[in-house]
Amino acid sequence: MTERTGTPAKERPSSAASVASSTIRMERLAKRYPMGDEVVHALDGIDFCVDEGEFVAIVGLSGSGKTTLMNIIGLLDVPDDGTYTLDGQDVALLADNELADLRNRSIGFVFQSFNLLGSLTALENVKLPLTYRGTRPREADATARRYLAKVGLEGRERHLPSQLSGGQQQRVAIARALVGEPRIILADEPTGALDSHTSVEIMELFKSLHREGQTVILITHNPDLAEQAERVVRIADGRLGASEHGHEGVRLAVCDTAGGNDAAPATAVARAAAEREGEAHATRANG
Ligand SMILES: Nc1ncnc2c1ncn2[C@@H]1O[C@H](COP(=O)(O)OP(=O)(O)OP(=O)(O)O)[C@@H](O)[C@H]1O
Ligand SMILES: [Mg+2]
Q1: Would you say the CB of residue 1 lies under 6 angstroms from ligand 1?
Q2: Candidates 31, 41, 58, 64: which one to mutate for ligand 1, based on the most atoms within 8 Å of Cβ?
Q3: Is the beta carbon of 65 within 6 A of some atom in ligand 1?
Q4: Considering only CA atoms, which residue is closest to atom 4 of ligand 1?
Q5: In this predicted model, what pLDDT tens digit does every residue of 25-69 receive, in sequence order?
Q6: pTM score, two decimals?
Q7: Which atom of ligand 1 is nearest to the CA of 60?
Q8: Which intervals carry biased composition (Basic and acidic residues) (predicted)?
Q9: Is residue 41 lining ligand 1, measured as CB closer than 6 Å?
Q10: Which of 41, 159, 243, 258 is the most core-located residue (most Cβ within 10 A)?
C-alpha cells in the first residue's frame, strides 16, 4: 500500500510554492501492460505530489516502475487509471498538441544515455528546444550559450558530442533540459553511464540547480544518490512509499493531505497563469 506519513505544514521546508497547489499531483495512478494471458501492473495506485522547488528522488530496484512513472510525469505516456495534474492542468483533458506544448514548457528531460544528436555541436544541441518553440535564432544562440556556461562548458560550444567526455555530454544534456526554463527537471538515471567521480559532479550540479529554486525529480536505483535529494520516495512493484532515507525534518509525505483535497481554486489560479504564459509565449513566438 501507498504510505501517507503526513507532516504538519510548519515542519516543512518553507518555499513559496508550498502554499500553492502542487506542481505535480497524481492520484491512484495505474499503468498496466498486457503480456499474453498476464497483465504487468507497472504502476499500481500511485499517489504522488511534488511542490515547486522540491528536489525529490524516486528510488527503486530494476523493474519497479521508475521509467514508467517518469514517462507519465513527462507526458511521454498516459496512465490507464487515475488522475495526473501538472501545473494545474488535468492532462487527460488535453489534446495532443496541448500536451506537447505543456511538455515543452514544463519538463526538461535528462537521460542516462544523454540522448544528444551526434551530428550537432554542443551549442546546437542546447538550442534545439528553443528552435522547436520558435525562438529567434540570435536569442536562441545567446540563451544556449548562457546555459552552456552555467553548466561549466564555456569554450566547448563547437564541440561535437564525440569530442566531449561523458560528464561533459551529460552537462550539455542538462543545459538542453534547462534552456527552455522548464518547471521541472526530470532525470532518469542521469549518472548511470558515468564514473563515480563524474557522478558526484553531476549530482552537485543538480543540487546547485535545486538551491536556485529549480524543481528536480531524480530517478535512480542507487540509494546513495537518492539520499542526496531533499526528499526520497521508494517505488516497489509499482507502488510508492516514503523512504527511510529522508533527511530529518524534511517531509516524507507522498502527497500533501494538508493542502486539501479540493485543489480547484489553486488549479484555477495555475490554469490562469498557464494561459497568461501561453499568451506571452505566443507573443514571443510571433514577434
Ligand atoms: N512496454 C512494456 N510492455 C510490457 N511490460 C513493460 C513495458 N514497459 C515496462 N514494462 C514492465 O513494467 C515494469 C516496470 O518497468 P520500468 O521500465 O518502469 O522499470 P524501471 O524501474 O525503470 O527498471 P530499470 O531500473 O531496470 O530501468 C517491469 O516489470 C517491466 O517489465
Ligand atoms: Mg528504467
Answers
A1: no
A2: 64
A3: yes
A4: 33
A5: 999 999 999 999 999 999 999 999 999 999 999 999 999 999 999
A6: 0.80
A7: 21
A8: 1-13
A9: no
A10: 243
DSSP 212-257: TT-EEEEEES-HHHHTTSSEEEEEETTEEEE-TTPPTTS---SS-G
pLDDT digits (tens, 9 = 90+) for 195-245: 999 999 999 999 999 999 999 999 999 999 999 999 999 999 999 986 544
Which domains, from first to last, does the chain contain? 9-286 (3.40.50.300)
Chain segment 145-191, per-residue pLDDT in tens: 999 999 999 999 999 999 999 999 999 999 999 999 999 999 999 99
- As a residue count, the chain comes to 287
Taking alpha carbons only, the member of 81, 94, 96, 59 closest to residue 243 is: 59
Mean pLDDT (the chain) is: 82
89-90 β-sheet, strand order? 38-50, 24-35, 81-86, 89-90
| Nearest residue (CA) to ligand 1, atom 30 | 63
Q: What is the pLDDT of residue 241?
A: 83
> Can you say whether the dihedral through the CA atoms of 193, 195, 196, 198 is positive or negative?
negative
User: Ligand 1, atom 27: nearest CA belongs to which residue?
Assistant: 62
* Element spanning 26, H or E: strand 24-35
Here the cell at position 229 is 535529494
Pocket test for ligand 1, best of 67, 72, 78 (most atoms within 8 A of CB): 67
